[in-house]
Amino acid sequence: MSDYFRNIRNVHYSFDKAKDNLGNPIDQIHKKLVTDITMRTKLKKTVKQDLVTYYPYIVKDGQRPDNIANEYYGSTDYTWIVFLSNNIFDPIFEWPMSQECLRKFIITKYGSLDDAISTVHHYEEIIQPFTDSTPDHPEILERTIEIDESQYRRLIQLGTNTEKVITNYEYEFNLNRNKSFIQLIEDVYVQDIMNNARKLFEEMNV
């Protein structure tokens, strides 16, 4: 991954603009040298233009992206390809936490596990119940929509049994679990992606 970032150019970016006494903007007085993240978008487009095959993968508890890169692509240098194929910009927040890290995160955010379990994050209505697979039909997953508290209480009064309470604990757990479902690019395409990346870096740095 270090080789990837080492090849990305830095650009001066203006974070704010000041105004003079007449209210006219004074452009680009506060600049900072930052990594040109638009390179990622350009590289992503080149990958989409190729006939690249993805396959689903479930991140194991505590598994790091560099572990996956080393296991499937033969080197941790390809960690950036794991990020690229999943549109991950910030692995600290977009990569799934281990169960222990998640537990500590919830305690820090909500005070305790009990508080997180006993407090409501939001309400949902089931619009498609879960259905087991049969010899003739595949499994149908549950589908829900978020609703407000008044709609939730109305469903209770109607006796539809389609209302759900999502606690803060369930929300954080589900959010973290969903991050575990990623996709990986077939390893046979890695060299082509590397060649495209080098060509793009050369063109951008001319």
Textual characterization of the structure:
This protein is extended. It is α+β, with helices and mostly antiparallel strands. It has helices spanning 2-7, 38-49, 65-73, 79-85, 91-94, 99-110, 113-118, 149-158, 168-178, 190-204; strands at 10-19, 25-35, 54-58, 120-128, 143-147, 163-167, 181-185. Helix content is 45%, strand content 24%. The strands form three sheets. It has a three-stranded antiparallel sheet with strand order 5-4-6. A two-stranded antiparallel sheet has the order 1-2. It contains ten helices and seven strands.
Give the strand content: 15-25%
Q: Main sheet, how many strands, which sense, barrel?
A: 3 strands, antiparallel
- What integer value in Å does the Rg equal? 23 Å
Mean pLDDT: 82
* Low-pLDDT residue intervals, each spanning 5 or more residues: 7-13
Strand order of the largest sheet: 5-4-6
Q: What structural class is derived from the secondary structure elements?
A: alpha+beta
The run of helices and strands is HEEHEHHHHHEEHEHEH
Tell me the number of helical segments per DSSP (H or I, 4 or more residues long): 10
Could you give the count of β-strands?
A: 7
Shape: extended
Distance between the termini: 22 Å
Q: How much helical structure, as a percent, in the residues?
A: 40-55%
